[in-house]
Amino acid sequence: MDVAKLNGILDRWNRNADFLIEIMQDVQDEWRYLPQDVMRHVADELRVPLARVSHVATFYGAFSLEPRGKHVVQVCLGTACHVKGAPRVLDAIARDLKIEAGQTTADQQFTLEGVRCVGACGLAPVVAIGEDHHGDVSPAGASKLMRKYKTKEDGHGQD
Ligand code: FES
């Protein structure tokens, strides 16, 4: 655990337990998930029970207790996307990454998730990768998209 980094986050929020959620969001931004030892340190420093921290961590869907990849690939499985073939898009990406929904690749580059409506139904089926939303994605298009991100990671983009 990088204690200096964590203390920086705690200081930013004045070590005030009223900002527990904000602190945990910053922790997740840094570590990409909520490591157990970090949660324990947060509880100690804010003088709140670890159970309260754990409750927040499990209550909010935005938090992850498992390591997540650098790129979180979210395939929308909401109704509009579902009827337009989202499950096949999810399968195509799972095949490409050689993982299943809910898993992270061994190199920690990608996490794949099936999620509820991301609020862009007009673009269905939608795949969100980090902050980017990609619309009208076919299974073949999804594979192409993943190739693009993998190439970017290999350091030889070809756009
Ligand atoms: S159902 Fe997919 S964006 Fe709404």
Report on the architecture of this protein.
The chain has 159 residues and is of the alpha+beta class. It folds into two domains: 3-59, no CATH class; 71-154, Glutaredoxin (3-Layer(aba) Sandwich), CATH 3.40.30.10. Helix content is 48%, strand content 11%. It has seven helices and four strands, in the order H-H-H-H-E-H-H-E-E-E-H. A four-stranded mixed sheet has the order 2-1-3-4, covered by helices on one side. The termini are far apart. The model has no long low-confidence stretch (mean pLDDT 92). The structure holds FE2/S2 (inorganic) cluster. FE2/S2 (inorganic) cluster binds at residues 76, 78-81, 117-121, 124, 126. Residues 76, 78-81, 117-121, 124, 126 line the site of FE2/S2 (inorganic) cluster (FES).
End-to-end C-alpha gap = 37 Å
In total, the number of strands is 4
Poorly predicted spans: none
Strand fraction: 5-15%
Which features characterize this protein?
159 residues; alpha+beta; Glutaredoxin; 2 domains; 4-stranded mixed sheet; 7 helices; 4 strands; 48% helix; 11% strand; elongated; binds FE2/S2 (inorganic) cluster
Concise summary:
This protein has helices at 3-12, 20-31, 36-46, 50-59, 79-83, 86-97, 139-154; strands at 71-76, 110-115, 127-129, 132-134.
Detail the topology: elements first, then pairings:
Elements: H1 3-12, H2 20-31, H3 36-46, H4 50-59, E1 71-76, H5 79-83, H6 86-97, E2 110-115, E3 127-129, E4 132-134, H7 139-154
Parallel strand pairs: 1-2
Antiparallel strand pairs: 1-3, 3-4
Helix pairs in contact: 2-3, 3-4, 6-7
Bound molecules: FE2/S2 (inorganic) cluster (FES).
FE2/S2 (inorganic) cluster binds near residues 118 and 120.
